[in-house]
Amino acid sequence: MKDNKAIYLKEHNTLKTYNQYIKSFMYCINNIYIYSVSEDIDLVNRIYKEIDKNTKKIKRNHRINISVSESCSDNFDINEYDLSILIKKNVSMHNGMCFYCKTCPSIRNCKSRAMQRICREVHIDKEKCIGCGECIKRCHFKIVERDKPNYKIYIKNKLIIEVNTQNELLEFIDKLLDFYKNIYDKYESFSQMINSIGIDYIKDTLNKKFIENKY
Q1: Nearest to 105 by CA among 128, 130, 137
Q2: 87 near 213, Cβ under 8 Å?
Q3: What CATH number is given to the structural domain containing 161?
């Protein structure tokens, strides 16, 4: 593989996620399979290259399934993958600039019901927000804006860490693969390693290494 170009093993059908159309891709590196449903192809390529750099020594029978999805994607199911990366794209409002329209089109068209009016003021529930961006399109006064994305990393169905930048995301993936390379001979697969030593132990070890390296 050339350093400056990630290879798409297979391009899947274009998927409709609310009012967006996102292409999905399947990547394969040294028996590591990455299924991507994300508009951010550059980020997925960076993840691809980071994993390619770190999986040279992993044996062919040690398969790892990875997904990269956006919060607005219907295809995000953390139970189907060993490692899942969720790109969270929240929105926010300019403080003090909302005109509080009687029939707010952003509230009316919010797919996840994350926007609501409380005591005349419009509030956004960041936990409910799926980042589809419909409220940004609908606001007549352009008060709603996109936040910088953050990234949630899951092993199976357990949230391991949430980071704010792509560099932190890639750094954590690097730590995870380094952790796996050091002990993979003892296990038949990544899933078996998880079942044997437990997600909590992996989470505590990786978070400790990540924090030590960060500070």
Answers
A1: 137
A2: no
A3: 3.30.413
Give the end of a domain, one of 146, 171, 189.
Answer: 146
Rounded to two decimals, the pTM is 0.76
Tokens at 195, concatenated: 């079942």
- Taking a C-beta distance cutoff of 8 angstroms, is the pair 111, 130 a contact? yes
pLDDT, block means (10 residues), the chain with 215 residues? 41 47 69 77 82 71 79 63 86 78 87 84 84 85 87 89 91 86 72 85 85 61
Q: Crossing angle, helix 199-214 and helix 190-197, to 10 degrees? A: 100
189: DSSP letter: S
Residue 3 resides in a domain = no
- The crossing angle, in degrees rounded to 10, of helices 199-214 and 166-183 is 130
Contact status, residue 165 vs residue 43, Cβ threshold 8 Å = no
